[in-house]
Each structure stands twice: as structure tokens, then as C-alpha cells.
Amino acid sequence: MKSLVLFLLLVTGSMAAFSQSQSELNKQAGQEYKEADKKLNDIYQLILKDYAANKAFIKNLKDAQRIWIQFRDAQVQAMYPAAAKSYGSAFPMCRAGYLTELTNQRTEALRVWLNGLPQGDVCTGSIGDKLGNQ
């Protein structure tokens, strides 16, 4: 019996050490979004630098990025159309998580301009055309 009580005390104490308040979870999710957004901006800036000589591409990329931001915001609004308070205390965490997911998807979509496509792919378009020769 003593072993069972001791075991339960240890388990309960361990669980308390790992628990986080909703406020902490919200803050953590917000930080993860900030990191994802920074990574996206870093990739975007590298592409702008690498492809600076391809003026047509740069113009179109900037247009696409501006429109993507509008899409991202509209997507979040569609996901959470009601007032924030109606989703409860977890809303900041959920919203930041969704923003992180969308941002990571965009980062991967842009990364191909830096990493290229598999050899033999004939549908590369502007990918790799840093001088605007196509």
C-alpha cells in the first residue's frame, strides 16, 4: 500500500512539473509563429538578393507575396470567423498555430527558388533563372 501511495505522489508531482498554464501555451505558440515568420522573411530576402538581376521575377514575387499575405489573413479569418472571445482562452494558441502552419507551407513553397527542383524537371519556369534569361 505504501508503494502505491508513494508511486501516486511521484506521478502527480511529475505531472505538475510538466503542466503549463493556458497563458504559457499561448505565449509559446506565439513565439513559434514569430520564429516561422522570421524564417519565411529570411528565405524571401535571400530570394530577392539571389534573383535581383531578374527584374520581372522580382516584381512578380513581390506581388505574389503581398497577395499571399492577404490570402493568409483571409484563411485565418475563415477558420475563426467569430469574435476571438467566443473561442475561449485557447484561441491565441490555436490562431498562432494555424498561422505557423500556413507560414511554414509558404516557406517551403518559396524555398524551391533557393534549392531548385530535381534534375530533369522541365517545368522549372523562373526557378534558377537568376538573370532573367528565359
UniProtKB/TrEMBL annotation:
Signal peptide residues on this chain, from the entry's feature table: 1-19
InterPro entries (UniProt xref): LprI-like_N (IPR009739)
Keyword Phosphoprotein attributed: no
Pfam family, one: LprI
Keywords: Signal
Lysozyme inhibitor LprI-like N-terminal domain span: 19-110
Name the record gives this protein: Lysozyme inhibitor LprI-like N-terminal domain-containing protein
Species the sequence originates in: Chitinophaga ginsengisegetis
Top-level taxonomy: Bacteria, Pseudomonadati, Bacteroidota, Chitinophagia, Chitinophagales
